[in-house]
Amino acid sequence: MKRSRRLRVFVGEDERYRGRPLFEAIVLAARERGIAGATVFKGFMGYAPHAGISTAGILLLAENLPIVVDIVDDEERIRSLLPFLRRAVKNGLVIASEVEAEQIVPPEPDGEH
Question: Does residue 108 form part of some domain?
Fold first, then answer.
């Protein structure tokens, strides 16, 4: 395991950046910066300060559900994404933390079938 940084970006699914969903713009910006990978999670329920509860439940309309973009890479690459996030995220939360990470990949084929 190696020391890495984890970046979590919490936004609403209705948030947009230059005409596209904000979560998609964040993933594309991470890829452009050579960041190892990003995963988007859609929440079923959540709330933020000064906002009502958003839920996917039957009794309440699904409205601006929470989205989390989870990114892990080395500190330098994570920091390279922060200026973009400061421009793009108008209403959200960005959390960075130190983690231990190890990428697990399939072994190289050894020529035997």
Answer: no
